[in-house]
From TrEMBL:
The keyword Hydrolase applies. Keywords: Hydrolase. It comes from the Eukaryota. Its EC number is 3.6.5.2. Belongs to the small GTPase superfamily. Ras family. This is small monomeric GTPase. It comes from Mya arenaria (Soft-shell clam). It catalyses: GTP + H2O = GDP + phosphate + H(+).
């Protein structure tokens, strides 16, 4: 399609407690606050300047208690998806398979997607090794990142750049 690129909707999906709210808050404020009302579903909005005008970037922090129905609804709303898990919680990585299946069902195989392992600062509590995260990256056929939202903004910015690039590509094609 020749739709002009004026905005993008990014959806954060993952198990409870992996750092979705911390990720969104870090992106918007450049800060890590530490304690969040994580049950709430909320859209964060940022205007990004471009050479010609600006684009609107929406980030949906999906609330607790995701069900197949809510994941499907969020998937339809969004243009791109950040699948996030905690490196200290192997089950949160396994869980993403279910989420990915729903996205594939709704949007097809080829849609803007990244896989993000958070809490890389908690080295001694780590439950996911490199091999396993690579396997999932390959299975999902998307770029993967390891970040610490607590330590720095850098990883969050890289993830957002990547997903924006993928979404833009979708608009041009
Ligand atoms: P959500 O349920 O996915 O939205 O998760 P939250 O953003 O509420 O984060 C859950 C808990 O993990 C909170 O206590 C955060 O402070 C903590 N947390 C989030 N990101 C990190 C991180 O990178 N490192 C560490 N050590 N803790 C984190």
């Amino acid at each position: 399609s020749q739709k002009r690129f004026t905005g993008a909707r990014t959806v954060l999906l993952g198990a409870s407690g992996v750092g979705k709210t911390a990720f969104a808050v870090r992106y918007i404020t450049k800060r890590f606050i530490g304690d969040y009302d994580r049950d709430k579903e909320m859209v964060y909005t940022r205007q990004l300047p471009t050479p010609r005008d600006e684009i609107t970037l929406d980030i949906l922090d999906t609330g607790a208690r995701l069900t197949s129905e809510t994941i499907e609804k969020h998937t339809k709303w969004g243009d791109g998806y950040i699948l996030i898990y905690s490196l200290t919680d192997r089950a949160s990585l396994i869980y993403l398979s279910e989420v990915k299946d729903i996205i594939t069902k709704v949007k097809g195989r080829d849609c803007p997607l990244t896989l993000v392992g958070n809490k890389s600062d908690l080295i001694s509590a780590r439950e996911v090794n490199d091999e396993e995260s690579c396997d999932f990256g390959q299975k999902f056929d998307c770029p993967k990142f390891e970040i610490s939202v607590a330590e720095t903004s850098q990883g969050v910015l890289e993830v957002m750049d990547e997903i924006m690039c993928q979404i833009k590509r979708d608009f041009v094609n």
